[in-house]
Write a structure and sequence with these properties.
The protein is mainly alpha-helical. Helix content is about 55%, strand content about 0%. α2 crosses α6. The protein is globular and about 80 Å long.
Length: about 170
């Protein structure tokens, strides 16, 4: 990658989660977007690496072809970059949306790959997620009459018949 592409990658991926925004946002220079982008490009298939690079060029030159402004993403202010990415994610062309989404995926990997961001998000907190289980839980005691009551329910049509080959009575 060229120096220009490195700069674009850092700025484009950083615009998906700008510093100082509401919610869970990274601190300035907390996330190394460039290292994640390079690692994803290096460890992916050649076609996927080409897709990442194509997505980067598409987003970097979007101010020119989407807005008619003679500049790249580097010259936009951070809020304008985020707005540009939002427009690209809702573009009428499927290819534009998907390539932009590919960069968003790279940004998400960079965010969750940063231990301090992941710790603030509570992503690794297993206890918090187990308390969110929902649904009705019943304890049913297995007795000898359970088998006969299941047969009675099947006879009345409210219990599904077991799947598999039917057995003939002998």
């Amino acid at each position: 990658m060229t120096h220009l592409e490195d700069k674009w990658a850092t700025q484009a991926l950083g615009a998906f989660a700008p510093s100082g925004a509401q919610g869970l946002s990274p601190l300035p220079n907390e996330v190394d977007y460039l290292a994640t982008f390079r690692r994803m490009s290096r460890l992916s298939t050649p076609l996927a690496a080409l897709g990442l690079r194509l997505a980067l060029w598409l987003v970097a030159l979007a101010p020119l072809w989407l807005c008619g402004r003679c500049m790249t993403i580097s010259r936009l202010a951070e809020p304008e970059r985020a707005l540009l990415l939002s427009r690209l994610l809702t573009h009428s062309s499927f290819a534009v949306r998907e390539l932009t989404l590919l960069l968003k995926f790279a940004a998400a990997m960079a965010l969750l790959g940063t231990a301090s961001v992941r710790a603030r998000s509570g992503y690794d907190n297993v206890q918090a997620t187990t308390k969110l289980e929902s649904g009705l839980r019943l304890r049913v005691r297995a007795t000898r009459s359970s088998a006969s009551s299941g047969a009675a329910l099947r006879a009345h049509g409210s219990w599904p018949a077991p799947k598999g080959p039917e057995r003939k009575a002998s």
